[in-house]
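Writing this down once: the sequence line spells out the residues, with the fold written below as integer tokens. I am pasting one below:
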Amino acid sequence: MRALETCLYADDLTAAEEFYTGVLGLTLHSKVEGRHLFYRLDGSMLLIFNPTESTRPGDVPSHAGKPGGHACLAIPREETDTWEQKLQSHGLSVTRYAWGQRGESLYFHDPAGNVLELAPASIWGIMDA
């Protein structure tokens, strides 16, 4: 079993789209204006919902939540320095944490206050694909 979807919340989807597309370079899969953004990752989806709009009834059960979640996106170990520099060049404060020989994580916040992490899968003992 593996995670198929990761869900975060953002009150300002325009700022979220600019961040996830412009800063992280993710490709938008689909969106409903004012309600959600869906990004396809390698083998899973990142869903970003407006917390107010996502509680309204619809075709699928409502998604209730608030900004302040956490998601970790996998990057190749050898790209850690490059990503740290890229994030800092966008004015982000980055905390770098070493997991011993397993690799290092980069922690930072998106515009909604969600804590994001970029790290190699090896921090969990999973070999990079």
Observations:
- The two ends are 17 Å apart (CA to CA).
- The chain has a mean pLDDT of 91.
